[in-house]
Amino acid sequence: METKEVFDTVAYRYDFMNDIMSLGAHRYWKEVLIDFLSPREDTHILDVAGGTGDVARRFLNRIKGNGFATVSDPNEYMIEEGKKNHRFKSKIEWVVAPAEDLPFTDNTFDAYLVSFGVRNFSDIKRSLKEAYRVLKPGGKFFCLEFSKVENKTVSSIYNMYSSIIPVIGKVIVGDEEPYKYLTKTIDEFPSQKEFKEIIESTEFTDVNYKNIFNGIVAIHFATKAVNAE
Ligand SMILES: C[S@@+](CC[C@H](N)C(=O)[O-])C[C@H]1O[C@@H](n2cnc3c(N)ncnc32)[C@H](O)[C@@H]1O
Description:
CATH topology of the domain at 24-149 and 190-223: Rossmann fold
Mean pLDDT: 94
CATH superfamily of the domain at 24-149 and 190-223: Vaccinia Virus protein VP39
Helix content: 40-55%
Strand order of the largest sheet: 3-2-1-4-5-7-6
Structural class: alpha/beta
Shape: globular
Number of strands: 7
Low-confidence stretches: none
Order of helices and strands: HHHEHEHEEHEHHHEE
Bound molecules: S-adenosylmethionine
């Protein structure tokens, strides 16, 4: 199943399924992401692979509707689903675009966020280059993604749960394929240490990550130097 087809299929129930599949935990993980961002009232974020705009709305909620969010995603169905939610409507700009080819001028955003999107990118290095280009000097990169669990016991419980995810998908949306894709992309994605090295191989500085829930997810962060060209 192709990435686009996966999100075409799940778009209409995407937010609901996120709650079911993560047992509500995605809400907490995204709030931690916003803690890391620590936004100010004039912050302008780019939420890449933003889907239905869940992260963008959490960001706007944190600063009481101040600031501004640009949500970009190549899947128009996900974006159309996001537009149905009118919360902070005037503070969100929606753009259909892939992470590998962002239609924004250089040095535009205070922060670049990507939540559960990077493992879908067709070219991660090119996307990181684009992230760097569109950030202002001093701008911050944040990536929330499923990662590798560090404790063996937690890992075996988590693996057991992952194996029933496609079954839950079949029961709720009538199709297990998108959820097989989900678990496959999680398995194939680099470990937190490997992904840190990939980010370090770009022009970003101050690269690091923080595990949450023993590495079920991790937040990677990096900075575009203040004196960057
Ligand atoms: C799991 S959803 C995440 C949505 C949202 N960020 C969240 O955390 O709820 C993954 C998103 O990645 C998008 N996507 C797939 N390929 C992409 C690419 N090459 N560039 C940017 N986004 C992509 C999909 O369309 C989908 O909306």
